[in-house]
Amino acid sequence: MRQAWALAVAAVLMAACGGGTPSRSSVLGDLADGFIVPAYQQLQSDAAALEESVSDLCGALDSASLAGARDALAATRRSWSRTEAVWVGPVMDRRSWAAVRWPVADQEIEDLIADTSIELDYERLSSRIGADQRGLGAVEYVLGAGDEALSALEDPRRCQFLTGVAEVIANEADQLGEDWTVGWEEGDPYRDQFGDAENDGIDSVVNDTLFLLEAITDLELGNALGAMSREADPTAIDEGPAGAGVDDLRHRLDGARAVLVGAGDDREGLSPLLGGELTERLVEQFNAAYGAVDSVQPPLRQAVVNSPETVIEARDAIKVVQITVATEVVSRLGVVIGFSDADGDSSG
Q: Is 244 strand, coil or helix?
């Protein structure tokens, strides 16, 4: 599959050799229409399905409905991971990660559910509790990893919390999709502003993709392996009961690849501005990174302890992409490297 995709990219590049370099505005427009807007629309759809599935679960506590809710959670988590390379505009303005995905504090969730003096309604869950008590991590915690979650959900407050948190996630995802396609800050859709040549869309997406790769290699895998300090800390990887850390890596890489070199078919990402040789090398580097990640046996935290050599290889392969972006892509596009608005906030 990836080999066929790489060949398709090469074919597109060869076909484009006879024409001039497209404008930055047109490339950004194509990136928005080919990847960014569909990615946020997929998040909308998956988050809505998650909200429905947890409602169904609380209406019928059985193994089938529990499996359905877990499947919907995994789909929403994948969709969110793919957007991380394009955390620009609305998602940064709204600080959406605080509603959708943040490392959770298990005991604080339990304390919140146990405190019957606190209403678990949408208003409180959306704005009056900490980010570490909601989001996809909170849903994953309540759904657990075994059938024991069913008996726990017989507590009405637990179900109230679960459905309320799912509603917060769905509403946030819906707002992001609307901001990109209907109107942002009571103005035009952000898609139109993003593609405006006078704005810094290129700088934004390249910076964000670079921040993502740095977060993966240094803040998460680097700290987990002890490469950034004297002591390894597997908890640097945000991985709940489902053990989906490896899956997260794949889909976060999907987003970075889509930005830089496209995602197959006629979606080229920023590659028309990068040139054929640099694009082909990035394709090869992404393929190597995918191969290394696929060699890691989940769960990721456990792999850090039991087979660190596979995680080191994955980190090293992703680091190659990161370095190419930080040097050659930045230089080729004249990007000014800034500071992430999510520094200290991003949880992947």
A: coil
* Integer Cα distance of 88 and 79 in angstroms: 16
- Per-residue pLDDT tens, the chain, 348 aa: give them: 444 444 444 444 444 444 578 999 999 999 999 999 999 999 999 999 999 999 999 999 999 999 999 999 999 999 999 999 999 999 999 999 999 999 999 999 999 999 999 999 999 999 999 999 999 999 999 999 888 999 999 999 999 999 999 999 999 999 999 999 999 988 999 999 998 866 789 999 999 999 999 999 999 999 999 999 889 999 999 999 999 999 999 999 999 999 999 987 667 999 999 999 999 999 999 999 999 999 999 999 999 999 999 999 999 999 999 999 999 999 999 999 987 555 544 445
C-alpha distances in Å from residue 160, one per residue of 72, 86, 120, 166: 18, 32, 7, 10
Note whether 13 and 6 are within 8 A (CB): no
Q: How far is CA 256 from the centre of its chain?
A: 10
Q: Domain 32-187 falls in which CATH fold?
A: A middle domain of Talin 1 (1.20.1420)
Q: How far is CA 57 from CA 65, 110, 112, 218, in A?
A: 5, 20, 21, 38
Residue holding tokens 């209907």? 182
Cβ neighbours for 182, distance < 8 A, ≥ 6 positions apart: 189
The whole model's pTM is what?
Answer: 0.90
